[in-house]
Amino acid sequence: MSRVPMTVAGETKLREELEYLKTEKRPRIIKDIATAREHGDLKENAEYHAAREEQSFAEGRIQELESKLSNAQVIDVTEIPYSGKVIFGTTVHMINCDTDEEVCYKIVGDDEADIKQLKISVNSPIARGLIGKLEGEVASIQTPKGIVEFEVDKVEHL
């Protein structure tokens, strides 16, 4: 499997979730299953079936997180010399050439993307159009409403 880019913050968040699942949630579920077993007939025991289903979801998530972390290529943009070029992990301030509206996005890995926090996936059309551009350059980005041009105003390594 190929390496998946991830920021330091993204890796930390996934590791924290994995730690929580392994040290807190998994033992609680095991205890819930044991308690439900004590109630007798497992065929008609809703608590037992609910706990087993929860266990299945938790174990699946643990496997998913371990897989993602084992294939992660953690990139610390603060360690990369500043060049004014848009790269993975940078925060990009840009201006819509048609409306003069300013917008700012941080380019992150797929698992970290959250448009509400202004974090966009490196694989999104906007990020793909911005990668490699320098401050002052214009990027033409295909959107559902047509091509929109953005001028890269400022690139930050945060």
Q: What letter string, H or E per element, gives the SSE order?
A: EHHEEEEHEE
- Bulk shape: elongated
Summing up helix and strand content along with how strands pair, one would put the structural category as: alpha/beta
Rounded to the nearest angstrom, the distance between the terminal CA atoms is: 29 Å
Task: Give a short synopsis of this structure.
With 158 residues, the chain is α/β, with parallel strands linked by helices.
Protein architecture, described:
There is one protein chain. With 158 residues, the protein is an alpha/beta fold. It has 2 domains: 4-75, Helix Hairpins (Orthogonal Bundle), CATH 1.10.287.180; 77-156, Chitinase A, domain 3, CATH 3.10.50.30. The protein contains 3 helices and 7 strands. The strands form 2 sheets. The protein has a 5-stranded mixed β-sheet. Strands 1-2 form a two-stranded parallel sheet. The longest helix is centred in the N-terminal third of the chain and has 30 residues, at 8-37. The two termini are 29 Å apart.
Write the layout of secondary structure elements.
Layout: E1 4-7, H1 8-37, H2 46-70, E2 72-75, E3 91-96, E4 102-108, E5 119-121, H3 125-130, E6 138-143, E7 146-156
Helix pairs in contact: 1-2
Characteristics of this structure?
Chitinase A, domain 3, 158 residues, elongated, 39% helix, Helix Hairpins, five-stranded mixed beta sheet, 2 domains, alpha/beta, two-stranded parallel sheet, 3 helices
